[in-house]
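Researcher: I've been going back and forth with a colleague about how Methyltransferase domain-containing protein might be arranged in three dimensions. Neither of us has a model we trust, so I'd like an independent prediction. The organism is Bradyrhizobium betae, in case that matters for your notes. Sequence below.
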Amino acid sequence: MADAVGTHFFPEIAAGGFSRVDGTVQFWQRVGALIGPQSVVLDFGAGRGAKQSEDLVSYRRGLLSLKGRVRELIGVDVDPVVMTNEALDRAFVITPDGELPIPDQSIDVVVSDFVFEHIQDPGRAARELDRVLKPGGWICARTPNRHGYIALGNRLIPDSLHARIIRSAQDAREEKDVFPAVYRLNSTSAFKQHFPASRYDLYVIPWDAEPAYYFGSKLFYSLFLAIQHCTPAPFKTVLMAFIHKRPVA
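Model: Here is an independent structure prediction for Methyltransferase domain-containing protein. You can compare it with whatever you and your colleague have in mind.
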């Protein structure tokens, strides 16, 4: 939901509820272009479905809601709360060893929205995604850029203070939705390492949306906007990665 601070800097929010730099709109529009009625989609890190159910902007909710638009929407998460996610057709809890309870080459599109930053073992996660993804399929991931100021600042905050500070900086963020971030699969070099060019095509879009952590302050908001305006692409706050598994020749 846009507040008075956001609409001060992006008045076009009044026309539809989102700004010209809205990262959710940018990411999910492209996801929508890659799915079809016959697609089997995996929501990797689906959680409790807060994004789909609690976004107050109807246009964004439409983009986020894939159930009914694809043949099947499967969700997985390490947190058993995924079993309560009503936005999914089926849900599974990821096993302690990281294995996905999904058959080989059964997924057309993997979507992972702000999850890669929490992956402890990127090699294992990438191998599992590769195993379940069909040749010709896509992995769509939005994640904080390891080299952006948000991730850099987050790594400087002690774990014990993360939830409190993020809750103060983002009024709409619930503490139960704050998880430890390790930033091991959050750079272009990491994507290239774990999804090698011998079998994958990688398309990375660096992005700066509206400032998300500004403590309700117009001064902080304007400061972060200025920083983002001067930041070169490799240091943008967010990366949108679209990773294509080449068809078998």
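Researcher: What would you highlight for our discussion?
Model: I'd start with this: The CA atoms of residues 17 and 58 lie 8 Å apart. After that, consider the following. DSSP finds nine helices and seven strands in the chain.
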